[in-house]
Amino acid sequence: MSKPIDFYFSPTPNGWKISIMLEECELPYNTILMDLKKGDQFQSDFLRISPNNRMPAIVDYNKKSAPVTVFESGAILLYLAEKTGKFIPNSKLGKKKVMEWLFWQVGNLGPMGGQHSHFWNYAPESEKDGYAANRYAEEYDRCFEVLERQLEGQEYIVNEYSIADIISWPWVLIAKAMGRSLDAYPNVANWRQRVKERPAVRKGVDLMRTKS
Protein backbone atom coordinates (compact mmCIF):
# COMPACT_ATOMS: atom_id res chain seq x y z
CA MET A 1 0.00 0.00 0.00
CA SER A 2 1.33 3.43 -0.95
CA LYS A 3 2.23 5.99 1.64
CA PRO A 4 0.07 9.08 2.01
CA ILE A 5 1.29 12.26 0.33
CA ASP A 6 3.49 14.36 2.61
CA PHE A 7 1.99 17.86 2.65
CA TYR A 8 4.12 20.73 3.99
CA PHE A 9 1.60 23.26 5.22
CA SER A 10 0.99 26.46 7.10
CA PRO A 11 -2.48 28.04 7.42
CA THR A 12 -2.23 30.75 4.79
CA PRO A 13 -4.06 31.25 1.49
CA ASN A 14 -1.29 29.45 -0.37
CA GLY A 15 -1.42 26.53 2.01
CA TRP A 16 -5.21 26.34 1.79
CA LYS A 17 -5.06 25.97 -1.98
CA ILE A 18 -3.48 22.55 -1.54
CA SER A 19 -5.35 21.39 1.55
CA ILE A 20 -8.59 22.13 -0.33
CA MET A 21 -7.42 20.21 -3.39
CA LEU A 22 -6.31 17.21 -1.35
CA GLU A 23 -9.70 17.14 0.37
CA GLU A 24 -11.59 17.62 -2.89
CA CYS A 25 -9.69 14.72 -4.49
CA GLU A 26 -10.04 12.57 -1.34
CA LEU A 27 -6.34 11.78 -1.43
CA PRO A 28 -4.69 10.42 1.72
CA TYR A 29 -2.11 12.84 3.05
CA ASN A 30 0.13 13.46 6.02
CA THR A 31 0.21 17.08 7.16
CA ILE A 32 3.60 18.46 8.15
CA LEU A 33 2.84 21.75 9.89
CA MET A 34 5.49 24.38 9.36
CA ASP A 35 6.32 27.15 11.80
CA LEU A 36 7.30 29.91 9.40
CA LYS A 37 8.16 32.33 12.21
CA LYS A 38 10.76 29.87 13.48
CA GLY A 39 12.17 29.44 9.98
CA ASP A 40 11.15 25.86 9.23
CA GLN A 41 11.11 26.81 5.54
CA PHE A 42 14.88 27.35 5.61
CA GLN A 43 15.77 23.89 6.91
CA SER A 44 18.00 21.94 4.53
CA ASP A 45 15.62 18.97 4.31
CA PHE A 46 12.79 21.23 3.22
CA LEU A 47 14.96 23.16 0.76
CA ARG A 48 15.59 19.90 -1.09
CA ILE A 49 11.84 19.74 -1.67
CA SER A 50 11.12 23.44 -2.14
CA PRO A 51 14.24 25.30 -3.36
CA ASN A 52 12.46 28.66 -3.10
CA ASN A 53 12.02 28.14 0.68
CA ARG A 54 8.26 28.58 0.44
CA MET A 55 5.40 26.33 1.37
CA PRO A 56 3.25 24.59 0.25
CA ALA A 57 5.10 21.60 -1.10
CA ILE A 58 4.30 17.91 -1.41
CA VAL A 59 6.07 14.59 -1.69
CA ASP A 60 4.06 11.95 -3.54
CA TYR A 61 5.04 8.36 -2.75
CA ASN A 62 2.33 6.82 -4.91
CA LYS A 63 4.75 5.92 -7.66
CA LYS A 64 6.76 2.84 -8.57
CA SER A 65 9.77 5.10 -9.08
CA ALA A 66 11.37 7.46 -6.58
CA PRO A 67 9.13 9.83 -4.59
CA VAL A 68 7.96 12.87 -6.57
CA THR A 69 8.49 16.29 -4.99
CA VAL A 70 6.46 19.28 -6.15
CA PHE A 71 6.74 22.89 -5.00
CA GLU A 72 4.80 26.05 -5.95
CA SER A 73 1.04 25.97 -5.46
CA GLY A 74 0.13 26.24 -9.15
CA ALA A 75 2.41 23.36 -10.06
CA ILE A 76 1.06 21.24 -7.20
CA LEU A 77 -2.55 21.84 -8.23
CA LEU A 78 -1.79 20.95 -11.84
CA TYR A 79 0.11 17.82 -10.74
CA LEU A 80 -2.75 16.65 -8.52
CA ALA A 81 -5.37 17.44 -11.15
CA GLU A 82 -3.50 15.38 -13.74
CA LYS A 83 -2.82 12.62 -11.21
CA THR A 84 -6.50 12.23 -10.34
CA GLY A 85 -8.18 13.46 -13.52
CA LYS A 86 -10.25 15.83 -11.38
CA PHE A 87 -10.97 19.55 -11.57
CA ILE A 88 -9.38 20.06 -14.96
CA PRO A 89 -11.23 19.69 -18.28
CA ASN A 90 -10.39 16.88 -20.68
CA SER A 91 -10.52 19.02 -23.80
CA LYS A 92 -7.52 21.01 -25.04
CA LEU A 93 -9.56 24.19 -25.13
CA GLY A 94 -10.87 23.59 -21.62
CA LYS A 95 -7.36 22.97 -20.28
CA LYS A 96 -6.15 26.08 -22.05
CA LYS A 97 -8.76 28.17 -20.24
CA VAL A 98 -7.88 26.69 -16.85
CA MET A 99 -4.17 27.27 -17.46
CA GLU A 100 -4.81 30.92 -18.33
CA TRP A 101 -6.49 31.49 -14.99
CA LEU A 102 -3.94 29.40 -13.12
CA PHE A 103 -1.17 31.63 -14.47
CA TRP A 104 -3.29 34.73 -13.87
CA GLN A 105 -3.61 33.89 -10.21
CA VAL A 106 0.08 33.19 -9.60
CA GLY A 107 1.07 36.35 -11.50
CA ASN A 108 -1.64 38.75 -10.33
CA LEU A 109 -4.15 37.94 -7.59
CA GLY A 110 -1.70 36.05 -5.38
CA PRO A 111 1.22 38.50 -5.49
CA MET A 112 -0.99 41.58 -5.19
CA GLY A 113 -2.97 40.05 -2.33
CA GLY A 114 0.25 38.96 -0.67
CA GLN A 115 1.86 42.39 -0.90
CA HIS A 116 -1.30 44.07 0.34
CA SER A 117 -1.34 41.58 3.23
CA HIS A 118 2.23 42.54 4.11
CA PHE A 119 1.44 46.24 4.33
CA TRP A 120 -1.88 45.65 6.08
CA ASN A 121 -0.44 43.32 8.71
CA TYR A 122 3.24 44.17 9.12
CA ALA A 123 4.17 47.61 7.79
CA PRO A 124 4.99 50.41 10.24
CA GLU A 125 2.03 52.71 10.82
CA SER A 126 3.81 55.47 8.93
CA GLU A 127 3.79 53.32 5.77
CA LYS A 128 0.30 51.82 5.94
CA ASP A 129 -1.18 54.68 3.91
CA GLY A 130 1.84 55.37 1.73
CA TYR A 131 2.25 55.05 -2.02
CA ALA A 132 3.33 51.39 -2.00
CA ALA A 133 0.55 50.28 0.35
CA ASN A 134 -2.11 52.05 -1.72
CA ARG A 135 -0.66 50.73 -4.97
CA TYR A 136 -0.95 47.10 -3.83
CA ALA A 137 -4.43 47.64 -2.38
CA GLU A 138 -5.59 49.12 -5.69
CA GLU A 139 -4.06 46.27 -7.69
CA TYR A 140 -5.71 43.77 -5.36
CA ASP A 141 -9.03 45.47 -6.07
CA ARG A 142 -8.28 45.45 -9.78
CA CYS A 143 -8.01 41.67 -9.61
CA PHE A 144 -11.51 41.58 -8.15
CA GLU A 145 -12.68 43.61 -11.15
CA VAL A 146 -11.14 41.03 -13.48
CA LEU A 147 -12.88 38.20 -11.64
CA GLU A 148 -16.15 40.13 -11.58
CA ARG A 149 -16.19 40.30 -15.37
CA GLN A 150 -15.17 36.67 -15.76
CA LEU A 151 -17.87 35.43 -13.41
CA GLU A 152 -20.66 37.28 -15.17
CA GLY A 153 -23.33 34.77 -16.08
CA GLN A 154 -21.49 31.72 -14.74
CA GLU A 155 -20.99 30.05 -11.38
CA TYR A 156 -17.26 29.34 -11.62
CA ILE A 157 -14.24 30.90 -13.30
CA VAL A 158 -14.28 28.61 -16.34
CA ASN A 159 -17.96 27.73 -15.82
CA GLU A 160 -17.23 24.33 -14.22
CA TYR A 161 -15.54 24.08 -10.83
CA SER A 162 -11.80 23.58 -11.38
CA ILE A 163 -8.34 24.26 -10.06
CA ALA A 164 -8.82 27.81 -11.38
CA ASP A 165 -11.32 28.31 -8.56
CA ILE A 166 -9.29 26.41 -6.00
CA ILE A 167 -6.18 28.50 -6.60
CA SER A 168 -7.98 31.84 -6.58
CA TRP A 169 -10.56 31.46 -3.85
CA PRO A 170 -8.32 31.60 -0.74
CA TRP A 171 -7.02 35.05 -1.70
CA VAL A 172 -10.60 36.29 -2.06
CA LEU A 173 -11.68 34.61 1.18
CA ILE A 174 -9.42 36.88 3.24
CA ALA A 175 -10.20 40.14 1.42
CA LYS A 176 -12.67 41.45 4.02
CA ALA A 177 -10.28 40.63 6.85
CA MET A 178 -7.73 42.85 5.10
CA GLY A 179 -10.05 45.83 4.76
CA ARG A 180 -11.19 45.27 1.17
CA SER A 181 -14.90 45.33 0.46
CA LEU A 182 -16.55 43.06 -2.10
CA ASP A 183 -19.70 45.19 -2.23
CA ALA A 184 -18.82 46.46 -5.70
CA TYR A 185 -18.23 42.90 -6.94
CA PRO A 186 -21.47 40.92 -6.46
CA ASN A 187 -20.40 38.13 -8.82
CA VAL A 188 -17.21 37.67 -6.83
CA ALA A 189 -19.05 37.79 -3.50
CA ASN A 190 -21.55 35.18 -4.64
CA TRP A 191 -18.77 32.96 -6.02
CA ARG A 192 -16.84 33.32 -2.76
CA GLN A 193 -19.86 32.08 -0.81
CA ARG A 194 -20.65 29.32 -3.32
CA VAL A 195 -17.15 27.86 -3.04
CA LYS A 196 -17.10 28.32 0.72
CA GLU A 197 -20.13 26.06 1.06
CA ARG A 198 -18.32 23.05 -0.43
CA PRO A 199 -17.56 20.53 2.37
CA ALA A 200 -14.01 19.85 1.11
CA VAL A 201 -13.27 23.58 1.07
CA ARG A 202 -14.35 23.95 4.68
CA LYS A 203 -12.19 20.97 5.65
CA GLY A 204 -9.21 22.43 3.82
CA VAL A 205 -9.48 25.80 5.54
CA ASP A 206 -10.04 24.15 8.93
CA LEU A 207 -7.00 21.91 8.56
CA MET A 208 -5.12 23.30 11.56
CA ARG A 209 -8.09 22.56 13.77
CA THR A 210 -8.73 19.07 12.46
CA LYS A 211 -5.29 17.57 11.85
CA SER A 212 -1.99 17.60 13.70
Structure report:
- By secondary structure, the chain is an alpha+beta fold.
- The protein folds into 2 domains: 5-86, Glutaredoxin, CATH 3.40.30.10; 92-199, Up-down Bundle (Glutathione S-transferase Yfyf (Class Pi), Chain A, domain 2).
- It has helices spanning 13-25, 44-47, 73-84, 92-121, 131-150, 163-173, 186-196, 199-205, 207-210, and strands at residues 5-9, 29-33, 57-60, 68-71.
- Strands 2-1-3-4 form a 4-stranded mixed β-sheet, with helices on one face.
- Helix 1 (13-25) packs across helix 8 (199-205) and helix 4 packs parallel to helix 6.
- The model has no long low-confidence stretch (mean pLDDT 95).
Notable characteristics:
212 residues, alpha+beta, Glutaredoxin, Glutathione S-transferase Yfyf (Class Pi), Chain A, domain 2, 2 domains, 4-stranded mixed beta sheet, 9 helices, 4 strands, 53% helix
What is the element layout, followed by pairings?
Blueprint: E1 5-9, H1 13-25, E2 29-33, H2 44-47, E3 57-60, E4 68-71, H3 73-84, H4 92-121, H5 131-150, H6 163-173, H7 186-196, H8 199-205, H9 207-210
Parallel strand pairs: 1-2
Antiparallel strand pairs: 1-3, 3-4
Helix pairs in contact: 1-3, 1-6, 1-8, 4-5, 4-6, 6-7
What's a concise summary of this model?
This protein has about 210 residues and is an alpha+beta fold.
